[in-house]
Amino acid sequence: SDLRQMIATRSVENVQFLPFLTTDVNNLSWLGYGCLKQDWTLIAVNTVGAALQTLYILAYLYYSPAKRPALLQSLLLLAVLAAGYGYFTLLIPDTRTRLARLGLFCSVFTISMYLSPLADLAKIIRSKSTRCLSFPLTVTTFLASTSWTLYGLQLHDLYIMV
Questions:
Q1: What's the pTM?
Q2: Residue 69 lies in a domain
Q3: CB within 8 Å of 40: residues ≥ 6 apart
Q4: Which of 99, 95, 80 is nearest to 26 (CA)?
Q5: Which residues cross the membrane (predicted)?
């Protein structure tokens, strides 16, 4: 819906940039976990997710009149990703340890992403209005979370399950 709004209005007004960026980092992190684990489901889903989030970021940059803050945030998170890649590949030689630490990082990052919309909860309760809450997004987030939990249970993978 955000992408549709940006294209229709040719503006990024009322569209937040940070969710696109953090979701892209989340997808790229889980993609790394999937590659390390050689899990083709994780690889396929997160490759598509990262590609879509990158498309959203590019659209945001295209329609944004103030490109500098978004570019700086993108570069900062790219630097964090590069540092993380260096840490996980160069400083942790053991594959099992690397998988465990990367899985823990991915789980914590994903949990923080799912918790971030709760910041609006106080506003929703005070105003007694759910206007700022997207019902379709809430339902799809619930379904996606449930799917990943069931997939993690099937694989006996605590990090995916969480």
A1: 0.86
A2: yes
A3: 34
A4: 80
A5: 40-63, 75-93, 99-121, 133-153
